[in-house]
Amino acid sequence: MPRAAVAPNRRSVSKRASTPASARRPVLKVVPGRKPAAPAPTPVTYGKNDLLKRFAPLVRHVVERVAATLPRNVDHEDLYSAGVLGLLDAHEKFDTGKGVKFETYAVWRIKGAVLDQLRALDWASRSMRRKARNLDGVTRKLDQKLGRAASEDEVARELKMSRDEFYRLLDHVRGAVLVSLDESRSNDGEDQGTLADHLADPNAEDHEAALEDRQQRQVMLNTIDHLPEQERLVVALYYYEHLTLKEIGRTLGISESRVSQVHTRAMSRLRLRLQKAMTLREEAA
Q1: Please, where are the H alpha helices in 122-255?
Q2: CA-to-CA distance for 183 and 2, rounded, in angstroms?
Q3: What is the CATH number of the domain that holds 269?
Q4: Same domain for 110 and 74?
Q5: Looking at the DSSP assignment, which residues form a beta bridge with residue 185?
Q6: Per-residue model confidence as pLDDT tens digits over 153-177
Q7: Is residue 186 one of the residues assigned to a domain?
Q8: Same domain as 176, residue 225
Q9: Which residues, including other chains, have CB under 8 Å from residue 180's CB and lie 6 or more apart?
Q10: Domain membership flag for residue 227
Q11: pLDDT per position as a tens digit, 76-101
Q12: Residue 161, helix vs strand vs coil
């Protein structure tokens, strides 16, 4: 005999139907090739004893990057000291609850301390530097546009300033255009040097000028030797013995006015002969 169909259990059906969907076991879908996200790393802090030894290279790296665009006369050790202070400040103010690595926070604090040190060393204010850069930019733009050096009136007109306002601007930014003699200047293929290396030493002997002076003296002596005897004596007593015209007159037994006439004639002869001698020497060179 065929079995009669068994009716489902109403109690179990009603119980299944009454169970909310949120209470059922969730179905986990696994995506091929994707790993579950790793938990955020716990920030690590360091003791002060280990701080400088561990992060000294980081301080040096930040300082060198900032100093790469600075003049060579800026002392890097001063900046490094400021960077160390920034590192200590970062260690003191670091919050482990932010979920940020200490190195990331330390770089920001070190760089800020170095920039603060640079501003403290700068004698010009930030507004003065900004106005000086604007003036340099406008001047450079006009020079390129005109193909020559722009005049003060043209620069003032470009800045939409009167002449008096332009002159006040120049007075204001004067301190921002100072140049250090210790600043290094170098061209491609040339040795590095400072501006001071290109300035003449007032105490040093100019060999070229000394040689030219000796040659002129020799020409003058040769010219004096060819003067008449009386004129030669007057020149020698006046310029080498430093006698007055009156004293020369007593020495030579002539009047002071006569000495003056002889001196004038001697100077005229010397001037003409020196000009001729210098012309011949230049043509020979």
Answers
A1: 126-146, 152-158, 163-172, 207-225, 229-239, 245-252
A2: 111
A3: 1.10.10.10
A4: yes
A5: 193
A6: 888 888 888 888 888 877 767 655 5
A7: no
A8: no
A9: 71, 73, 195
A10: yes
A11: 888 888 889 998 888 888 887 888 88
A12: coil
pLDDT of residue 13: 44
- Domain of 96 in residue numbering reads as 48-121
End-to-end CA distance of the chain: 144
Burial class, 59, CB count within 10 angstroms (exposed 0-12 / middle 13-18 / buried 19+): buried
Rounded distance, CA 178 to CA 230, Å?
59
**How does DSSP assign 107-155, residue by residue?**
HHHHHHHHHHHHHHH-SS-HHHHHHHHHHHHHHHHHHHHHTSPPPHHHH
Q: Could you give the C-alpha distances from 40 to 30, 98, 205, in angstroms and in order?
A: 22, 11, 73
* Cβ contact 184:193 at 8 Å: yes
- Residue pLDDT, tens place only, 18-76: 555 444 555 545 455 555 555 554 545 566 667 888 888 899 999 888 888 776 667 78
| Closest by Cα among 80, 84, 126 to 109 | 84
* Residues 276/281/283/285 CA torsion (nearest 10 deg): -170
Residue 97 lies in a domain: yes
Residue 222 counted as domain residue: yes
CATH number at residue 91: 1.10.1740.10
Q: Give dist(CA 283, CA 285) in Å, integer.
A: 5
- Cα separation, 67 vs 77, in Å, equals 11
Domain count, the chain: 3
Query: Is the same domain home to 108 and 133?
Result: no
My answer on whether 133 and 175 are in the same domain is yes
Residue 198 scores a pLDDT above 80: no
